[in-house]
Amino acid sequence: MMYRIIENSNGHPLKDLKFLVKGDFICSACSLGKLITKPSMTKVNLESPMFLERIQGDICGPITPSCGPFKYFMVLIDASTRWSHVSLLSTRNVAFARLLAQIIKLRAHFSDYPIKRISLDNAGEFTSKSFNDYCQSIGIVVEHPVAHVHTQNGLAESLIKRLQLIARPLLMRSKLPSSAWGHAILHATSLIRFRPTAYHKFFPLQLVSGREPNISHLKVFGCAVYVPIPPPQRTKMGPQRRLGIYVGFESHSIIKYLEPMTGDQFTARYLDCQFNETIFPVLGGEDKEIKRNDIAWNATSMSFLDPRTNDSELEVQRIIHLQNVANRLPDAFIDTKKVTKSHILAENVPGRLEVPEVTLTQTKAFESQIRRKRGRPLGSKVANPRKRKEHIVSINHDANVSISNVSEDKIPEVILSEDPKRNEQDLDDSYEMSINYAHNSLGWYRKEIKMNDIFAYSVAVEIMDEDDNDPQTMEECQHRNDWKSWKKAIQDELDSLNKREVFGPIIPTPKGVKPVGYKWVFVRKRNEQNEVVRYKARLVAQGFTQKPGIDYTETYSPVVDATTLRFLISLSVIEQLKMQLMDVVTAYLYGSLDTDIYMRIPKGLKMSEALKSKPRHMYSIKLKRSLYGLKQSGRMWYNRLSEYLIKKGFWHNQISPCLFIKRTESVIIAVYVDDLNIIGSPEEIRQAADYLKGEFEMKDLGTTKYCLGLQFEHTKGGIFIHESNYIEKST
Fold it and tell me: What GO biological process, any one, is recorded here (predicted)?
């Protein structure tokens, strides 16, 4: 062809040659070597006016410095009204749960406007099978743009840019650090809802609600706000308000503000607050300005989930499972409404109990229901119970089980026949009594079982369970068969307290001081076979009587969570590391108190002869060290352990403060209160254990077999985890 030999220095034919056929100009080299991105076609005129018909979403981040635990934020925007929603995320892993929760919320609030399409990028959190299955089950079409072509998700991308353009000036004008970007982003989202867009003369919030919004509650971001002091913290002649930093609102009647000294977030009633929009307080106080990356945002008052727990993931899986069940059985719930109670078979009612008949020479009046140790049957009602006729019952005398020593208060109550026409003479040991059961929460149904069967079973359970539960008081311990073991445990606890010098002198209670109470807690420690290996008595203080600001200040103490524990288990299997569990004996007693605390004199504590004759309630004992039950005990122990491990070369960070790592020896110590899980090679574990034994009294429990309610079985191929003990206790 002629155009192949007519080429210029650029290596391709001249496009303007008149003898070339139209549409015949294709150059492979130019197609591969040149790329000019063409602008996307405007789709404004093609948008459907229906609200929520199409939603776009995207994630921005990671953002440094982090805003407390949050490093990302996710946006959702409606293509019709430009209504938007923003969620702060700690990790991208929780985006799926937050998105699903928002979809459920929108469907509940705007049931007349179904969500038809949702456009998201190709990130893994938006392409999971669980998310696609859920959207498909409720009729939502999930759309994904071409990879790396952001213009196809333009609304969400544009919203992220607008939020950043608004949030930056908000932070710059206020005196908040850059790590408070989460507050600014959320406030910017609220402001955008009150702004008309380029495609609508109405506000997005106005288009959604159908009425013009009220903006009288809007204030300048970061300005001073004077909020009421809670009544318990006020004094007669003291201030009634305190200074705060305004960072937005939850509703027209509730504002959000930061405490200037700590950066903690609180809420207050709008009408009770006074604003000064010309003053912008500084975090840390007037004389001390916190560096812009040092703020620690406390989000406890907000509903954002912490990704370090899997509660949100479990909730999402539960929702998806229920949705799938409903889809597989579309008529199941409708059909059940057509069936009356008399036509439903009691399929789940237990059969006759195979329990030997027992001998009972005395008679007893029975009424009400069988006493249950864990609540009553589903669907039962306790209001206005019907009285049942008393009957004299005679039980078979040929049984081998003797319960002649059973006290009357141990005899369970049994439901008898509701038919008042039956005579007492007709009741014998083979008489079939009617027992009510719940069935699928649809009503009460009947099942016939023998009177003496259920009676014998119930009495046997009471006898077996008498010593199965841990005692609640010292008096209860004294009446048990294992009192000697409990007595030794009580003495061991008192000896340990004296060894740690927990108690100060016994003195008359100072004037104006209300001593805290105490309680003995009795627990039997069990091994992985659910066998009792140790009797443990613990003297605890009743910390609920402590007053904040007087008896304590801070209480938070971090512990290893389930997610971190799963990671450590995986790490030990992959790297073929060992896991060893150690227990700190009376760990809380190592913490020193920073305030004066007095406690009532506990039972079992030896007193001098001079004090025995004086009224016990007028005296109290001063605590020198933290005791179990005090609000600050956990924090005092953690600080003590943390200081020692850091001194020994371990380090930890704010994200996982319960993990102490020593890089030079490649050993990890995971802390859960007084249980320390050491992970590393055998030599590294031994050295770390020596560090701990040199400072604290430790119990070496060997290879980790039981931790946080989980049972571990170490095999050559890995670690098998199960909860057999928990299942046995539950059943």
Answer: DNA integration
